[in-house]
Amino acid sequence: MKQRIVIIGSGNVATALAVAAASKCDIVQVYSRTLTHAQQLAQRVHCPLATNRLDRLEKDADIYIIAVSDDAIAQIVSQVPDNGALWIHTSGSKPIGLFSGKRKCFGVMWPMQSFSKQLSVDFVEVPLFIEASSPEAHKALHRFASTLSHTVMEADSHRRARLHLASVFACNFSNHMYTLAQEVLDEDGLPFDVLKPLIRTTVEKLQNLSPTESQTGPAARADHQVMERQASMLTGDKQAIYRLISQSIMDRHHTDK
Amino acid sequence: MKQRIVIIGSGNVATALAVAAASKCDIVQVYSRTLTHAQQLAQRVHCPLATNRLDRLEKDADIYIIAVSDDAIAQIVSQVPDNGALWIHTSGSKPIGLFSGKRKCFGVMWPMQSFSKQLSVDFVEVPLFIEASSPEAHKALHRFASTLSHTVMEADSHRRARLHLASVFACNFSNHMYTLAQEVLDEDGLPFDVLKPLIRTTVEKLQNLSPTESQTGPAARADHQVMERQASMLTGDKQAIYRLISQSIMDRHHTDK
């Protein structure tokens, strides 16, 4: 029998989850503060009910997914009485304890992905990190998560925090390296587009090699002559970042330098 | 009429170029210091002649491509007398002046890509940066480059140096961010694979947005609470890099901070 799901929220995470769940579960209702947003998402996932009133939430669903901004989760939990179903939130940074004393059966399901309107994502590829209040809650949550994604792993608050920190390096900081590269090119009127094939290759290499194994460049081969020349072409924070990251690479690839 | 090409070298760049050129030009000979390497590459591109002797190079080709390690280029130029054909090297960091006084018609064609045995690359997507000794040399080189790639641009030594520096940020340094992310996960026994969907999304966003526009994360929204918590989870160079890059992002996204 299909699990009956209520989606609370209509933003990027709520939408991605609802769309992914629509073909595997019964989405019985969509809630949003803004009725038209609830209606739009409901229509998109062929769900018969949309509401902007928390007191009108369906009572007999199996799972209630709170996919709203971090600061709004606690208020929703407080405003709706427990009905014995499984309640989960989808935040990477909020603890499971947020439900304590307010629900009997609860959990967290954090999709580690940056969802946006511009880019559709294949949800089965999105790693889902789950945490549950009891073996029963875990069983229901794991069953649900496994219908959505190939990768379901356990992660408590501590592990979610490490994963979030790792994603800051891997995504936010790598993206800032693209920004700095663009600034270097802008000074000569060269277009950023020329770097894209090389950027794609760098990422594709990770399919077969660890990032340490696939590291190349002047620092990886301790080419001090090239590093000095390149550092001297830079000023300000770009120069400081160039020197610090080059040293960090050398420390890992040339322990004698 | 097809351009007649001699390939000098049998490494990753020589191989990628020979394979790309094979369907558009006549590759008349492959040279390598190691005869079996010359023979293997010649066979792969259906070329009748392979040699390991510079004094046996064909005399009547249109273009001689020196795709060997940077430090070996000058020696090859010195050892082979000029025959009036177009001679080019493929190095990003060596100047065109290396041919001066030794050839009449010469140039540089730098493919901005990291070629490897593990990963085949669609050569038409590889940006080629060219520089030539004369309008005639430029015409022949541009014609050749345009048969290989959609993106052919002019770049003298100065611009090649800027492009190389930009690629260090965009590729070598972004890859080091993956290494640091892996170290953060390793401490908790979490697999690096879970980051791959997010890494792919970060790169796919660049199709529609500039890196500055697509920047997300705690620093981009000046979330000092999260940044302090994350920095305190780190030690050593990871903490220094976290602080420096976060500040660099804030400087660009929150000029009042």
Number of domains of chain A: 2
Instruction: State the fourth-level CATH superfamily of the largest domain in chain A.
Output: NAD(P)-binding Rossmann-like Domain
User: What average pLDDT do the residues of chain A reach?
Assistant: 95
CATH class call of the largest domain in chain A: Alpha Beta
Provide structural commentary.
By secondary structure, chain A is α/β, with parallel strands linked by helices. Chain A has two domains: 152 residues, Rossmann fold (3-Layer(aba) Sandwich); 94 residues, ProC-like, C-terminal domain (N-(1-d-carboxylethyl)-l-norvaline Dehydrogenase, domain 2, Orthogonal Bundle), CATH 1.10.1040.20. Chain A is built from eight helices and eight strands. Chain A has an eight-stranded mixed beta sheet with strand order 3-2-1-4-5-6-7-8. In chain A, β4, α3 and β5 form a beta-alpha-beta unit. Chain A is elongated and about 70 Å long. Chain A starts with a strand and ends with a helix. At the A-B interface, α5, α6, α7 and α8 of A face α5, α6, α7 and α8 of B.
